[in-house]
Every structure is written in C-alpha cells, then in structure tokens.
Amino acid sequence: MSENNANNLAIKVVNLEKSVKTQEGELTILKGIDLEVKQGDSVAIVGPSGSGKSSLLGLLAALDSPTKGEVYLDGQGLSDLNEEQKAAIRKQKVSFIFQSFMLVDTLTALENVMLPAELAGIPNARSKALSMLEKVGLSHRLNHLPKQLSGGEQQRVAIARAFISKPKVLFADEPTGNLDQENGDKIEQMLFELNKQSQTTLVVVTHDLALAEQCRRQLKMEDGHLSEITPAAERIA
Questions:
Q1: What superfamily does domain 2-234 belong to in CATH?
Q2: Cβ distance 205 to 54 under 8 Å?
Q3: Is the pLDDT reported for residue 1 higher than 50?
Q4: pLDDT in tens, 73-107
C-alpha cells in the first residue's frame, strides 16, 4: 500500500484475470492485466466490442471482483474488502458514468444528481446539482423523471451526477455514445476540465477515437489483453 502511495498512483492492477461460466464452459475475458495510473492522469481504453473493456472498468471501480489478481484504488487493495467496505470507497473516491445510465426511475433529474452528494454529506447539494444540470444544458428538465427524458438527456443527467462530488477517480463507459455532436463536445470539455482543475483521474472506455486522443494515454483491449498504444517514452512526464 505504501508503495502505491509513494508513487502517487490512483490505480494499480497486478496480474488481473476475470473468468465467467458459459454453457460452453469457463471463458476467460481478462488475461493477466497489469496497469498503473498516476493520480490526475487521463487514460482512454479502446478496442472492439466484447473485448473486455467494460468488464475491466467494473473491476477497477470496485463494482465487481476478479477471479485472480489485485486492484489497488488510491493505495487500497480491494480483494480483502467486503461489499460494504467497497461501497464506502466508491462513495468517498469514485464516480462512474454507466453506458446504461443507471438513473433511479422514481427520482427526478434534479434528485438523481443530488443523490450522491447527499449520500457523501456534501453541503449545498441542491444548488450544486442545479449548477451541474445547467452546465449539461438541462436546467429546463429538472423535475422530469428518467422515463420522460430522451436517451441523450438521460446520459447528460448521469454525467452531471458523476461530476457533482468531484471524485478522485472518474470512470466513464462510452460517456458520449448517446449524444449528438454538440452535446458530445460539451461533455468532452467538462471531462477534461474536471481532470485538469480538480486533478481527477479519468479512465474512459470509448469507441470515439477523437475523445481517446485527447487523453494523455491510450490503451487497447483485445482478446482480454491490455496494451499501450502510446509508448511510455513518448509521453510527457
């Protein structure tokens, strides 16, 4: 743990594997992955559909458990933690933008954005949620339920919710996938503003190569293996 903190690592992954059971037998979807991500870095993970990108993101964010190996999040090893302890780490340090939005159906847009701030005890949750929804262009949809919003609007609510707590690490699974060009550009700008201004570590799974190229590092997932696209020697220290 001290080694991770000494190196200022937000994420460290050691020999990570994930297998699932199928009708044909056991399928290994992540194979011996090693990764280090410094605090404040921005990392894009690209690769074909079904290559394991979203599965890896879930493991990094303590949403799932590996078959083998270890994930360290802000210096804390996750394998020995119970679900309550993992939930506490997510609440304190992590935000996640889900590809499927994961909004609470019975809460309005405003209430969905307020929720993580209230759970974390962040003061002025309502005013901060109002500000975030204004930034994503939804100040006129505050009191609408998710079912009353389009897919793109739900995505923007999910993004506002992820931003409100200014997390140490933000995981984003296809954050612009349901957005038109104008709103996609706006969200990309917000992602990198948070990364730079708050030193939030950004890990993005995307098929959008333009978004990936804005990240400091680009990684490729293929057949369960993770490789660096941008050589470490060419990155700015």
A1: P-loop containing nucleotide triphosphate hydrolases (3.40.50.300)
A2: yes
A3: no
A4: 999 999 989 999 999 999 889 999 988 899 999 99
Four-point Cα dihedral 52, 42, 219, 20, nearest 10: -20
Of 126, 192, 123, 191, nearest to 162 by C-alpha is 191
Token pair listed for 130: 């109002």
**b/e string for 72-104 if b means 16 or more Cβ within 10 A?**
bbbbbebeebeeeebeebbeebbbbbbbebebe
| Beta carbons of 73 and 94 less than 8 angstroms apart | yes
**Average pLDDT of the chain?**
90
The Cα–Cα gap between 48 and 223 comes to 9
Which residues, in sequence order, are CB contacts of 67 under 8 Å at separation 6+?
17, 18, 19, 28
Residue 231: band (very low, low, confident or very high) from pLDDT cuts 50, 70, 90: low
Residues 75, 62: Cα–Cα separation, whole Å: 13
| Angle, in degrees to the nearest 10, between helices 125-135 and 109-119 | 130
**Nearest alpha-carbon partner for 13 in 42, 40, 35, 29:** 35
Full-model pTM? 0.87
The encoded tokens of residue 69 equal 């190996």
Q: How far apart are CA 100 and CA 153, in angstroms?
A: 12
**For residues 77 and 65, what is the distance between their CA atoms, to the nearest angstrom?**
12
pLDDT band at 23 (very low <50, low <70, confident <90, very high): confident
Tell me the two tokens of residue 64.
Answer: 């799932």
pLDDT at 4: 46
Cα separation of 144 and 39, whole Å? 36
